[in-house]
Predict the 3D structure of the following.
Amino acid sequence: MSELLQQLLNGLSLGAIYALIALGYTMVYGVLRFINFAHSDVFMVGAFIGYYMGKLVPEHTLWGGLAVLGAAMVGCALLGMTIERLAYRPLRGAPTLNVLITAIGVSLLLEYTGQVFFGAAPRNFPAVFPVRSFSLGGVIVSSNQLIVIAVSVVLMVVLQFIVYRTKIGTAMRAVSLNPKAAVLMGVNNDVVISFTFGLGSALAAAGGILYALNYPSIDPLMGVMPGLKAFVAAILGGIGNIPGAALGGLILGTVETFVAGSEWSTYKDAIAFAILIIILLFRPAGLLGKFTVEKV
Amino acid sequence: MLTVTDLSVSYGAISALGGISFTIEQGAIVTLIGGNGAGKTTTLRTISGLLRPKAGRIEFLGADITRLPAHQIVARGLCHVPEGRMIFSNLTVDENLAMGAYLQHDKELIAKNRDYVFSIFPRLKERIKQMAGTLSGGEQQMLAIGRALMGSPKFLMLDEPSLGIAPRLISTIFEKIVEINRNHGITILLVEQNANLALEVSSSAYVLETGRIVMHGPSRQLRTDPQLKATYLGG
Ligand SMILES: Nc1ncnc2c1ncn2[C@@H]1O[C@H](COP(=O)(O)OP(=O)(O)OP(=O)(O)O)[C@@H](O)[C@H]1O
Ligand SMILES: [Mg+2]
C-alpha cells in the first residue's frame, strides 16, 4: 500500500512538470494552430537561467529558490515572445507546414546555440531550495516533491484565473475560437499571441527549474525527452484544451513512474507512447478535446 | 460619415469589386442589396479592414482608413457584424458581450451598454451564462448585434442579419435595428438579400451586381422601380 502511494506521489510530481510544459504547447496551438517545437528548448533555457542565477543566491533557501524560479520565468517569457516576434509573426497566414518547419529550425538553433554557450557536457544544477525529506506513514516525501506540487498547483490556479477571469484571458480564448471575429472586437491579435507565448514559456521555465531540481544534471539537449512527453500529454488531453493538458501531463507522469518501477521499466517510454496511440484510437480528439461544431 | 471611392478588391486573379463608390450620411440607414456573389460581403470586409483593396479609398469621419489595421478601425467607432454572425461559440453570452466591450475602459459605460442590450434583447439576459454556441440561430444574431453595441459604435455594418432566421424573429430583429438607429443615432449600413425588408427600413439604397453598383437612390423610389422589382423583389 505505501509502495503504491509512494509511486503515485512520485508519478504525480513528474506529471505536474509534464503538465506545466504541456500547457505551453496547448495554449500556442489554441491561438495559432501549430505545434511550437521550440517549446522544449525554452524549457532547457529555463533550467540554464536557473543554473546561472543559482550561483548568485545562497543555496538551500526558500527565497533563493523562488528568486531563481522567478528569474527563469521572466527570462523565458521574454525569450518566448522574441521567438514569436522574429520567427513566427512574419509567417502569419503562411501554410502550417512552413511554420512547423520554422519551429523545428528554431528548436535546433536553440539546442546548438546552447551547446556553444553552455557546452555539451552536463552540469550539476545547484540545490537552490532547502532539501529535506519527511516520512508519512511509510511514504517518503521529499521537499523537492512538495515544491514541485506546490509550485505547479499555484501556477495552474494563476493560469486558470488569467484565462477565465481576465480580459486578456477572454481575448485569448476568443482569438482561439475565431481570430477574425476577435479582430472585429478591436483585439490586436498579435498582442494576444505574444502574451500567450510569454505565458506558455514562463510555465515551461518553471517546469525546467522543477525538473532540474529533481534530475540535477542539465545539458542543452535536456528538453528533448520531457518536451516530447509533454507534447504527448497535450495531445492526450486534447490539443488546445487547457485542463486537458494538465490532465494529460498527470496521467503520463503517473503511468511512466509506475512502469519504471515495474519489471518492464526499460519500456517506460514505449509504453507512454503506446497509451497515446490507444487513447487516440478511441478518442481521436483527446480526453477532453471535442470537435466543435459551429452553427452557421 | 463614410465615403468609399473607386474601391476595387480581388481575390487572387478574381475581381470581386470593380471600382465602387458610395457615401453614407450620418444618422442614415443605408442598404446594400444584391444577389449571391455580388460582392456585398466583400465590401463590408474591406471597409472593416479584414481585406485589403487593390485600389480606392475609404474615408470615415473625415479620415482615411483604407490601410489601417482592422482593430484600429473598430477603435474609431466603425463596427462590423459579420455574415454568419461569428459569435464565440465556446464563450458564454456574457463573455461574448465582454469581448464586444474589449476597447471600452469606462465601467459605467459598459454597464449602461449591457443594460441597453438586455432591454432590446431580453432573451439574452435570460441566457447570460449559456454557451453562445448553444443559442438558436435567432438568438445568436441578437448576440452578434448586442456584442457590437457593447462597443458604443458610431457606425454599424450588418451583413445579412436575416440569414437563416424564422420570419417572425426577422421582423423583431429589423424593428430593433430601426430602434438602435433612431434612439442612439447610430448610422447603419445594412447588407441584405431580402430586398423588400431592407428597402422598407432604409432611407437609401445601393444595388450591387457582380462587383458594380448598378442603381442607387432613395429606398422609397427603388421599391417601385420596375426593373428592380423584377430582379430582386419577386415581381
Ligand atoms: N475568400 C474568397 N476567395 C475567392 N473568392 C471569393 C472569396 N470570397 C468571396 N469570393 C468571391 O467574390 C465574389 C463576391 O463574394 P461576396 O461574398 O462578397 O458576395 P455576397 O454579395 O456577399 O454574396 P452572398 O449574398 O451570397 O453572401 C464572389 O464571386 C465570390 O465567389
Ligand atoms: Mg455575403
